[in-house]
Amino acid sequence: MRAAVTNACFRFLFATAATICFSCCYANSNVNVVCIESEREALLKLKNDLIDPSNRLSSWVEGGDCCKWIGVVCHNITGHVHQLHLAAPPPPPDDYFASLAERDAYYRSKLGGRVNPSLLHLKHLNSLDLSSNNFSSIQIPDLFGLLGSLTYLNLSRAQFQGAIPRNLGNLSKLHYLDLGGNNLLPEARSLQWVSELSSLKYLDLSGVDLYIASDWLQVTYNLPSLLELHLSDCSLAADPYQISVNSTKSLAVLDLSSNQFSSLPMSIFSLHGLVSIDLRYNSLEGPIPDYFGNMSFLEVVDLSFNSLDSSIPNSLYSLNRLQFLSLGNNNFQGEISSAMGNLSSLIHLDLSDNMLQGRLPTSLEHLCNLKELDLSFNHIDQDISEILHTLSSCSLGCLESLSMAYNQLSGHLTDFFGQFKSLVHLSLSGNRISGPIPFSIGELSSLEVFDVSENQLNGTFPPSLGQLGNLETLSIGQNVLEGVVSETCFSNLTRLTYLEASGNMLRFQPNPSWVPPFQCETIELGHWYLGSKFPRWLEFQNNLSGLDISHAGISDVLPTWFLNLSTHFEYVDLSSNDLTGGISYLNVRTYLDLSSNRFTGPLPRLLPTLLGLVLSNNSFSGSLVEFVCNSSESRNMWILDISTNLLFGEIPDCWSHWQGLGLLNLGNNKLTGKIPSSLGYTNPVELNLRNNSMFGEIPSTLQNCSRLLILDLSENHFSGSVPAWMGEKLFNLVVLILRSNKFDGHIPHKICALQYLQNLDLAHNNISEAIPKCFSNFSAMATKNKTSADLGGWGFVEGKSVYWSALLVLKGREDEYSSTLGLVTSLDLSANHLTGQIPKELGTLTGLRSLNLSRNLLTGNIPDNIGNMESMESLDLSMNKLHGGIPSSFSNLNFLNHFNVSYNNLTGQIPTSTQLQSFENSSYMPNHLCGPPVSKNCITKGVPTDGGGSEGSSGQSKVKGLYVSIVVGFVMGFWGVVAPLFFIRSWRHAYYQKLDHVGRKLYVFWATMGR
Amino acid sequence: MAPFSLFSLFLSCFLPLLSPATSTNSEGNALHALRRRLSDPTNVLQSWDPTLVNPCTWFHVTCDSTNHVIRLDLGNSNISGTLGPELGQLQHLQYLELYKNNIGGKIPNELGNLKNLVGMDLYGNRFEGEIPKSFAGLKSLRFLRLNNNNLTGSIPRELTALSNLKVLDVSDNDLCGTIPVDGPFAMFSMPSYANNKRLNGPELKGLVPYDFGC
Q1: Quick one: which of A231, A501, A853, A930 is 20 to 30 A from B187 by CA?
Q2: Beta strands A72-74 and B198-200: pairing type?
């Protein structure tokens, strides 16, 4: 939309030939003249050499009146051919989902081939348009330079290539020359020929590589009549040095977008009459220079998509003719100045995707002409109702587009909202707006886009939304709307194509015979309750390409009509319902998620274009053979998750054409056999085969898996030793889980080379010998401050990452870690036959959060420096043969939440700390330990400690004991004196009167004693 | 990386959100609310991702087998800020370890709702205001250490009902009134009360008001 507006703005200045011609391009001019014989012959020769796959020139036939032919305009008196409009029709709307047929029709409509010299017989030709065709094989023919009558020549986007013929300079009558969007070079490194085109008003050389033509600036800026100059994407990086430009005063529109300027080209400041400047998509850095404010005629300024920073300079606000200002996608900071209100001519203001903060100035109320305001992706922190109030004072009637998505807006959408009658596009997603969607929304009758997703809106789905007959996009997902949605809510939404409402607690159960009035391309109703029956109304959505009805409470057999829908699905998410039945085939092009249902039968046949397939948590059964080996074509699949199903048999050995895989998860099935050697060639980022019945050794082809971050082979019957090559070849490993297998032998020292390894789980195997001292080389376990919480993800889902994840045992329980996996560090060697001492080198792994060495045959003392592992939350050394004491350094472990040293031969006092005494005595028993929390007192210290386990050394305990006896003694003695008095009624009154005095004495006594 | 970026691009445009269930994660929400009150210069709360279905994988948070939070271990973590009423929602919490930080403000009354709390260690912070009377509801409490704060007011008599209390430390505050003698208070010794300039004791039931000197 933004580009369209920009173009509209640029073109408004040049309403000559270009605009006029379009009105007659495809309509035959109703002239009464008959065409001239020689010119007809010339046109037919021209046609003969053109390739016309769609037969656009079908009207060009022998003997016809060429003035009535499509694209031909004759002079209405002389009958000479004056204009040839052979531009290809415009492309289909820039839509990913444009059908193949539409795309094909578009490409077929382009003319190609050669341009016959017979064109030169059209001596009176003054306008030639061949734009948007496909002349990819040829240069711009020299003969165009001989068409001396031409005032208008448009060869843009026609796939011409090579050098621009210099003789175009002969076309001295040219007013309009557009060569943009081709793949052209200046001949002889010079644009000198352009200087001969002294009548030129419009020049577009976009896409011509002018890096090698150092005279571009002198030539173009000196053209005396030039109004509009487009040099987009010309590889311009800086003004040529030593310029002395006698600049044209006439140049009004300058387009230097998509070049490599790193600072504003100084030459533009000599163009005093400039009305429009476009510097989008350059590499501009630093602040906007103040002298920009001197270009007082500017009406259009586009500096978006650069790296400009600092605050928006005040000088800019003196440009009081500005109508279009785009500073989007830069790094501007600070608050928006109240001087913005000076720009009272503004129609379009785009400050999106910067780091602007604070509140909008109330002076924006002076922008009475504002039609489009885009402030999305900033840090504006304000109540939305205040903003609407500011904008309502003047621009109420004209504001058509308001985008403030992804700021920190709060407050409610008040009923006042309904007064913005002109609003077409409203986007407020990703804020903290709460309260209901106001009923007055129904009054915004022009509204086409309503996006309030990712807020905290509550209340119901307002029925008045259903009045918005122009609405095309309804995006209310990820709010807390609740209640029942009735089908009448949709009755007028006949133009709706995009319905995105997932993540609300809404219920929608239309009458089974309901036929929606809309034909949507996207329907997302995830987390809605759609009733137990599969929604029948989807059958009538013939254009549907995206569907999310996950978590929708549907408990039904997946109907056959759904499987037979003729629509071309791009993605389908039916996950987390209670769907049953088998699926033979599903027509989904990119992403399919059927996870967490009760689908049965063999794996479905699917399109080979599929990039993501998630079938986990179902009851798909059978073998993988057909699914994996069916075709030898290379597969593009990136995500394949069939975990937690009932697959059986062996994993087939035909993975060599699955080389793009990122995630391969076949965990929790009934697969048997060995890991097939071809699996190694898939080189996934995550490979998960956990909890199957597979056996054999890890094949050496897994050495190819250099991308592996996560390898989980746990809970199988794999045997042999842990391969030493893992340390060298799988150098990216972050998570290695070989838990609960039959691995034996020793832990290879080479594994210590895994510098990124954060989680190593070898528990429940038959591994023997000592723990390698080189474990201290696991540097990722030694660093406390991890830079990134996650390990990245396999994709984005509505802008949010879906992270790589792993099932890890920490804190005594198994959990899936995903978005924080990058922070997790653990080492679990439990339940093996490890012998020898705990190497003191382990104590250097100070970033480790969980260490489990339990159920081994470890001997010796616990190394003191284990107490230095300050990040430790979970420490289990139980069931070994450790002796000696628990090191006093263990008192430093502030974060311990899971601790076990039971079943060893430990002796001595349990060190005191708030953490250590908070565990049950089962964490310590049986051993020969004493002190809290175990009941055995440490009598060797002379004084028994109390069972409570407060902090302090035994020395303090002695003092404490002393105090206890003093206090008890005092209380008893005191009561011995006072109590009798208290019970003698006649004395009581007198003593009451003395209480104050007694109290004061007591205070003095206690105060001194307490010191 | 090409297939990755291509796919990401696609997904970012067209995929529905696989959002976490918006169901009951009240304990996670309560902890997230706590996080928002705290300043965390050393990033100890970095793993507290509120979009996860429960807080059980967050560091310094421990859950039981039914995914209820039973421990919060944030002693000596350099955190500052205040506590809020939402902590009262951690109904299964057994250990609240927030000692040796820089947390200020009042101790929320709602902490008294934590029926399963065994240990509450708020010592070594900057808490002010009174010890909430609601602590009388902490029927399982064994360890209560509130020492080294700026607490004022008297020791609530209601705390004498804490029959399981084994360790009490309210030293180094600015408490006043008299020291209870009933229930578990019979066995606490002088250092538990030291360095409270206006604290008198023991209480003389009926003879001296327990908030004498406040």
Answers
A1: A930
A2: unpaired
Residues of A in contact with B170 (CB under 8 A): none
Q: Which of A655, A551, A557 is nearest to A601 (CA)?
A: A557
pLDDT for A567-586, tens place per residue? 889 999 999 999 999 999 88
Distance CA A699, CA A725 (A): 11
Q: Searching chain B, which residue's CA lies closest to the CA of residue A612?
A: B7
pTM above the 0.90 mark? no
> How is residue A439 written in tokens?
């009923």
Of A23-27, A332-336, A625-629, B72-76, the one with minimum mean pLDDT is: A23-27
Amino acid identity of A767?
I
Bridge partner list, A334: A356
Amino acid at A625: V
A210-250: pLDDT as tens digits: 888 878 888 888 888 999 999 999 999 876 654 555 555 78
| ipTM for the assembly | 0.85
DSSP H or E segment with residue A403: strand A401-403
Interface of B with A in 131-190 (CB under 8 A): 142-143, 145, 166-167, 169, 181, 187, 189-190
DSSP characters over B25-39: -HHHHHHHHHHHHEE
Q: Say yes or no for a CB contact (<8 Å) between B97 and A896.
A: no
* Three-class SS state of A551: coil
- With cut-offs at 50, 70 and 90, classify the pLDDT of residue A793: confident
> Which residues, listed in sequence order, are joined to residue A828 by a DSSP beta bridge?
A761, A852
The reply to whether residue B16 touches residue A815, judged by beta carbons under 8 angstroms, is: no
Q: Which of residues 188-227 of A touch B (CB under 8 A)?
A: none
What span, in angstroms and rounded, lies between the C-alpha atoms of A252 and A298?
9
The percent helix, strand, coil of chain B (3-state, each to 5) is 25, 20, 50
Q: A58, A47, A61, A164: which is closest to A112 by C-alpha?
A: A47
Q: How many CB pairs under 8 A join A and B?
A: 217
Spatial neighbors of B81 by CB under 8 A, at least 6 apart, are B37, B38, B39, B103, B104, B105
Within 10 angstroms of residue A826's Cβ, the number of other Cβ atoms is 23
A841 three-state secondary structure: helix
CB contact under 8 A, B22 and A799: no
Pick the CATH number of B19-204 from 1.10.150.130, 3.40.50.150, 3.80.10.10, 1.10.260.40: 3.80.10.10
Q: How many CB atoms lie within 10 A of CB B42?
A: 11
- Chain segment A962-989, per-residue pLDDT in tens: 334 434 444 444 443 343 333 333 333 3
Chain A residues with CB inside 8 Å of B192's CB? 950
Beta strands in A765-852 (DSSP E): 768-770, 793-797, 800-803, 806-810, 813-817, 826-828, 833-835, 850-852
Strand A806-810 with A813-817, pairing: antiparallel
* Rounded Cα distance, A635 and A42, in Å: 52
Q: Do B77 and A959 touch (CB under 8 A)?
A: no
Q: Taking CB atoms and an 8 Å limit, are A789 and B49 in contact across chains?
A: yes
Q: Which of A527, A819, A998 sits opposite B49 (nearest CB)?
A: A819
Q: What angle is formed at CA A499 by the lines to CA A495 and CA A505, rounded to 5 degrees?
A: 140
On chain A, the residues whose CB falls within 8 A of the CB of B75 are: 894-895, 914-915
Q: Which of A493, A967, A386 is nearest to B186 (CA)?
A: A967
**DSSP string spanning B78-91?**
--EEE--GGGGG-T
Q: Where are the domains of chain B?
A: 19-204
Question: CB atoms < 10 A from the CB of A832, how many?
Answer: 23
Token digits of residue A526? 């995830």
Phi, psi of A161 (to 5 degrees): -140, 170
Q: Mutating which of B22, B45, B49, B57 best tests the A interface, going by the most A Cβ atoms within 10 A? A: B57
